[in-house]
TrEMBL record:
Keywords: Signal. InterPro entries: AB_hydrolase_Est10, AB_hydrolase_fold, Hydrolase_4. This is Serine aminopeptidase S33 domain-containing protein. Residues 183-282 form the Serine aminopeptidase S33 domain. Gene3D superfamilies: alpha/beta hydrolase. It comes from Mucilaginibacter mallensis. Pfam families: Hydrolase_4. Transmembrane segments: none annotated. One of its GO terms (molecular function) is carboxylic ester hydrolase activity. Residues 1-19 form the signal peptide. It comes from the Bacteria.
Amino acid sequence: MKKLIITIIILCTVSFANAQDIAGRWQGFLNAGGTNIRLVFNVNKNGDNTYTTTFDSPDQNAFGIKCNSTSVVKDSLTAAVDVAHIVYKGLWDGKDGITGTFKQNSTLLVLNLKRNDLIRPQTPKPPFGYYTEDVEYDNTVKTLHYGATFTRPNGNGKYPAVIIITGSGTQDRDGTLFGHKVYWVLADYLTKNGIAVLRVDDRGAGKSTIGPDGTNVTSESFSYDVETSLNYLESRADVDKKHLGLIGHSEGGIIAPMVAARRKDVSFIVLWGAPAIGGAKINTQQAGQALRQRGVDSASAKAYMDLNDQVLPLFKTSTTKAELDKNIEPIIGNWLKTQSKSTLDGLSLANDTANRQALVGVYANLYTTPWLRFFFTYDPAIDLSKVKCPVLAINGAKDVQVDAESNLTAIKAILTQSGNKDFKVEELPHLNHLLQDAKTGDVSEYEQIQETMSPEALNIISTWIKLHTK
């Protein structure tokens, strides 16, 4: 299972049931060489009765890895993560158990799963005290259908409104993660404070269709989904069209400026854990953090980060996979030659042809994924510098997925240089990427923390929006 480490680390990009149904959170333990590794499969049922799955390996600090395919035929489940050469096949008992096998490359292991759904205290419960409506709408050319929930205060007025833009990975409208309903909790708080909210299923989640492009989409593609949602809000008689805003979480924090740069009807944006320094630098930071969390020594982690920093910029200059392979082979070969045995041992690698080819293959697979290639090459400063509406940028000081200091500093510098006169940058002590009160901020804590979102963070976002929608 050691070969899984580097692949999983690289995939850890800012990355997040029901009547009796196989949809839900399923957990099991994989016995690999005498070590029990906890694995979690999050199976989601879509509006068209198809399924999508994300894969977590909490012991390896890997969360929200998207399965390329999920098949549910009667009581049989099959889910695959192509880039890691993983296939899980299981037989559901119709209740709370799945008996199955986990295969990676040629290794086949038993992996039985138990349902492990979680309930959190901040999850809103009826009566809500405000108006709520499940809505559906299409894009202009009718190639995409969206499912969403609209909430607003009770009454007959026109209300300022926001769209919540989700982070990376296929997420439902509530931002469901380890039983937390992150975006629902935020929407509930804002609506109780006089702000209408539209929260939308991502493509391929809930009642939103995946569209004709399938998985060949990028953050830019998603920005046009947000425009469709913005058009929907403007069609409603109960929305104040002069006060429409966007709240972008994580990846959503680079999507919001894309939309605001194009649309002058966006009157404010909130950037929550936004990766403003760019995806390549974010990925390198995350890789180093994940390796250290696995017990890899600092020198070995730094060595891998240096390699990553050399390779990822080639995604922008290489026009084909073959060209990328040609460009990175000498870099990886030279890197392997120059590392000490202790460094390579720390990374479970060796200076040989097999490891060189394996590393080239990992990066090549990433290159062929349009979303990742865009994320690694896109410069968020381009669109953020065009944003002239008010901006609130907020990060938790203990965010290990999107470093608060470097990204907030970048946002401040970009907005200052571009002449934006109304922005606020705030780093909140003790909070993580989800804005939960945390001890370390590590992703593994998300599941352990009962709080879905800090009341302090909720209040800061709400107060700032109200100030800018008077």
